[in-house]
């Protein structure tokens, strides 16, 4: 039976281990000066007579990979663009299994055999169907021999869409 002293010693060891981990962790990045530092920078680059712009940017580290991405367009360009191609790209994300596949692949499970081990993803046929759908929409690419990867230029946009959808 554990005595109070044994339990206290175990708690002290856990606190010491946590303190060591915190001391070894890199310091957090400095807080931006203003709440809207990215927006302020965008505004400085825009002509005053325009209708504005949209910018998304990110620095991401997932499964040992690092991605930096920034993309922006003016509102005039966005509204003048042909939106007829967008539904297929967006609808590829509109299924829980496909979103789970993207999350698993970003997390490092990149082979069909690794993905097939996840029961919630359905049968092998269903798995391949979903992989084809999100590959055709450009959210995945074949990395050879039954392996898949989210293209580097799609990682931050995907996470930006998920951020906007969760808001």
UniProtKB/TrEMBL annotation:
SUPFAM superfamilies per UniProt: Winged helix' DNA-binding domain
Molecular function as annotated in GO: isomerase activity
Residues in coiled coil: none
UniProt superkingdom: Bacteria
Keywords: Isomerase
Transmembrane domains' residue ranges: none
Protein name: DNA topoisomerase (ATP-hydrolyzing)
